[in-house]
Amino acid sequence: MTRPQKATADYFPHSVTCGKTMFTLENKFGNDGYAAWYKILELLTSAENHFYDCRNPDNWEFLLAKTRLSVEKVTNILNLLARLGSINKELWQVQVIRSDNLIRNLSPLYRRRKINVISNSELIALLSTETRDTRLDAIKNPHSIVKKSIVVDAEANTTTQNEPLNSEKKSNTSEQITGFLKLFGSSRATETEKAFILKAIAAGCTPKHLEILLQKKPDITSINAEWVLRELIAVKRCNDNTDTNIDEQIAELKRQYGNFA
Q: Distance from first CA to last CA of the chain, Å, rounded?
């Protein structure tokens, strides 16, 4: 039985000509933008089927560690890359990084291997499968992908995929997730909601911060989008610095990062 060929690569083309992406990144972020982009390309090149799932808290923490940048700066860099078309905008809206340009640049490699990298539509279906094991099976057999929405009980095991949390931290995280959901009158979270809540917790946000935000913006019905997460982080910052008004804080974030919606 022949061994299946992997959809990964050991290198990617690095043009010596500075294009729009590099010029814009360096102009806005200096060397941090340059270094972050090439570290992201390294991750994408070595990843199976060349995508990186930031919904996984372990993956997100690793990306932050690899770039050695803050949550805000990495998020802002990725948002800019999506606007420039350097990463797929639709996939980044669900916190998945993929570069269509990178895949095109690697296409000669896959023609020689006589294999195909999964398409973006297949990847979107793949991301909707129910468990990690199913996702891995779907990568090997993309045509057998089953499209399912994921519902995660708020009291369920919050262990990350690569390394188990200690029982005290796991219990505290579960309690905080429950606290966030109760403010929306819910006891269950979709995978997307849970991923955003975990990122909010990682950023130091608590249900109390969400309660303050909901008093200001009662139309928010879930933590299921990046703009909600950003506004929640803005509330935390305001709460940490009582001299700063929350509206001024959010307005400043919008001036820096653009509209959140």
A: 50
